[in-house]
Design brief:
globular, 200 residues, alpha/beta, Rossmann fold, 5 helices, seven-stranded mixed beta sheet
Length: 200
Amino acid sequence: MKINVNNASLKISAGDPRQFLRSPVPQVAFSGRSNVGKSSLINTLLNRKSMARVSSMPGKTITINFYDIDSKLYFVDLPGYGYAKRKMEDKIKWSSLVDGYFTKNPNIDLLRLVVQLVDSRTGLTDDDRDFIEFMDDAGIPYIIVATKVDKLNKTEREKSLSSILAEPAIPDGVEVISFSSETKEGKNEVWEKILFYAEK
């Protein structure tokens, strides 16, 4: 699959499952806690600075954003979870919307991969583990992207990666990719995985 990443646009910001797209195009979803760097990863993959908006207030956005990539692939940006200051009604809305993506999505069979982001500085949170367990139970393919590795020195990076690889919640064989939006490290590796699964 050849994709022109410069031909990308925000198709819709869905705040209700009824707004989910009905289009026979493969989907790749991006998941992770608030402020883990999902927008930065998407912008880096698409060679943009502000295609996906980087929120100044973690946990602010509760929509699922569908990005049309050259009419051949959709990037699906799931709202970040685990933001402690979010009001209870917002947490319920987040849960309902994300659950709806997996249970009421007319094209869930076109979900090829979830890119699960984990902050390399903190490792997995309980919310990360819960989401990974859900994907394992549902048989959803996923990779782990360890973000913000540029903020760690060599020793810290090695320790962080070893800790993530040894995490009991992550089954053997799941790909773990180190990533930095600052240095673009890991960009090509993430794209390789996305295209590999999108063509399945």
